Amino acid sequence: MQKNFLGKCVIGIVIAVISVVVITAIIETVFIVKASIKKPKENATLIVLGCKVYGEHASRSLRERLDAALIYLEENPDSQCIVSGGMGEGEKISEAECMYRYLIKKGIHSSRIIKEDKSTSTRENLRFSKKIIEERGLSKNIAIATSDYHQYRASKIAKTLGFSVGAVPGHTAWWLFPTFYVRELYGILYQVL
């Protein structure tokens, strides 16, 4: 009888834990989706968040962010752009330099692009970009170009810095999405806790 009671308790605890995990994932997913569809204002200051660079070449995720940024910049010709990202392990140039080269090659005039090449995290990307925005008198209405799954966490950080935020989401390849999505769920929990 006691074994039966213990078994039921263990099953109850497992079900409760699974329920909490599933409910948390659903809530976070709703926040991620809402953040990634929030349209930015016209001619906002665009901040492109860095991502892995292989030597001197943009990773797939970084190219997806840059392609989204390119569309926004073409549709908003008065928008200034801050490319934000330092140099990580295995990178021959900073993420900012890689992004700058990519956008120039795609036809964006260099006078519209400002490099922030010291940051090593999303929080630093946005904090260092805020300093540039203030120094240059750029609009505090910002558009953040980052991966779709990353929009929520990036926009939450930006709001704590006093920005009005819109999303310019880069599409994530379907086969990469599950890994990045699960990692982002943990990132959101870490930020909240």
From TrEMBL:
Gene3D superfamilies per UniProt: HUPs (3.40.50.620)
InterPro entries assigned: Cell_Envelope_Assoc (IPR051599), DUF218 (IPR003848), Rossmann-like_a/b/a_fold (IPR014729)
Keywords assigned: Membrane, Transmembrane, Transmembrane helix
Top-level lineage group: Bacteria
Cited Pfam families: DUF218
Segments forming domain DUF218: 46-176
TM ranges: 12-33
Protein name: YdcF family protein
Source species of the chain: Anaerobutyricum soehngenii
